[in-house]
Amino acid sequence: MTNKTIDLICQRRSIRSYKSTPLTSEQINEIIQAAQSAPSSNFLQCATIIRITDSEKRSELAHYSGDQSYIVQAPEFWVFCADFNRHFQIDATIPLEKAEQLLVGCIDTTLMAQNAVIAAQSLGLGTVYIGGLRNNIAKVTELLALPKYVLPLFGLCIGYPDQNPDIKPRLPKQLVFFENHYQPINHQLLAQYDSQMRDYYGHREINQKTNGWSDKIAETISKGQRDFVLNYLHKQGWITK
């Protein structure tokens, strides 16, 4: 048995085409309030959202992200940043170079973003995350004047959907939910899921594919390595110790 909240969450899908209708100030405030209501490790509140209203910056960010046109088209585009610079301004003696700060910042920011996504969906809006910002993370940092200890993790398009894509099937629960200890892959279940994904990819309206899920994993991970990120993180003050 489900409820309206669970139904809402399970109906989420990425939207890449938007109507021109703008969001109201009330809608934006409601989404921000929901985002800020997310849990925060030790209540550090180490996340910041930058709303991009400058059309030239939107265009540049779209280009930096792999020319994803919906960044320009969407009524709203927000950049979610892990942010310990706020804490640095409060006390410059705080040790912020440890890996733990990076983890905490990423977790806090992601929890905040997902709250924003669900809130937007509850208002009849659609969203899509833009991890492609990290393709040119140093240029994004310069464009948005991000100081030390601020990390642009991803963008988020928000607006009224102008498409209704099918929901992408997820892995079977038995492959992601274990009890008491980690378990090896059930290859029979994985094969069934691959078959389901091939059917999904073959029948969706755009970007049709013939592959399943597991046979593209190596390619997907390899093409998203972004080997320059570690040096960038060090320059921004992250994980130097």
TrEMBL record:
Question: What Pfam families does the record point to?
Answer: Nitroreductase (PF00881)
Q: Which InterPro entries match?
A: Flavin_OxRdtase_Frp, Nitroreductase, Nitroreductase-like
Respond yes or no to whether keyword Thylakoid is given for this record: no
Q: Which SUPFAM superfamilies does the record cross-reference, listed alphabetically?
A: FMN-dependent nitroreductase-like
The residue ranges of the Nitroreductase domain are: 11-160
Which keywords does the record carry?
Flavoprotein, FMN, NADP, Oxidoreductase
Q: Per its UniProt record, what Gene3D superfamilies does this chain match? A: NADH Oxidase
An example of a GO molecular function for this protein is: oxidoreductase activity
What family does the database annotate? Belongs to the flavin oxidoreductase frp family.
Q: What is this protein called?
A: Oxygen-insensitive NADPH nitroreductase
- What's the source species for this entry? Gilliamella apis
